[in-house]
Amino acid sequence: MKTRTCVHIAALAALGNLAVASVGLAHQADGRAASSATSNPATLVQLETVQRATDRFLDVQRAINEGYVDIGVFYSNMGHHYLKADLLDATFELEHPEILVYADDPCGGGRRLVAVEYAVPLALAADAPAGFVGPDDDWVINRTFQLWTLHAWLFEYNPAGVFASHNMRLP
Predict the structure, then answer these.
(1) Are strands 99-104 and 140-142 parallel, antiparallel or unpaired?
(2) In what order do the strands lie in the sheet with 79-83?
(3) Band of the pLDDT at 107, cuts 50, 70, 90?
(4) Which CA distances in Å does 24 have to 105, 161, 164?
(5) Alpha carbon 125 to chain centroid distance?
(6) How far apart are CA 32 and CA 135, in angstroms?
(7) How many CA atoms lie within 13 A of 73 on its CB side?
(8) Whole-number Å distance between alpha carbons of 10 and 133
(9) Prediction pTM value
(10) What value does the mean pLDDT take over residues 7-32?
(11) Backbone angles phi, psi at 69, to 5 degrees
């Protein structure tokens, strides 16, 4: 793929993601809101807060400089996971996600932030942690790592929903 084409594709993708993320809702062809995000206004405010708090991590090097470590975990339809172990506890901290999820740039430009992920050790919480306001967040038990996990796809549109575990738009 030519460099100029990659730049154009990346720019269009960034603009599209920014538009969807800033509105918080995607719309189907018939004008109905799609399930890509929550319609709860309080949750939307929280998601905007998280995005503002974490947009500095668009640069993966900044995340590394602030203590996030590539733990060598890559999942299809998710990406590469960077953990800040100091944040792993029983507390949901809106502006301090334990994990940042990055996808490889299809044009060879390194890694780009696609989601944040919250994680609480199962040993510290028998039930799903209290997270975002409302019923839309979907905590999942990850038995491999013994964690409750919750994704928030704030930097890459996810047609399955902002809190879905996987994003089929990613390889």
Answers:
(1) unpaired
(2) 69-75, 79-83, 99-104, 111-121, 147-152, 140-142
(3) confident
(4) 23, 10, 14
(5) 22
(6) 20
(7) 12
(8) 33
(9) 0.79
(10) 36
(11) -120, 135
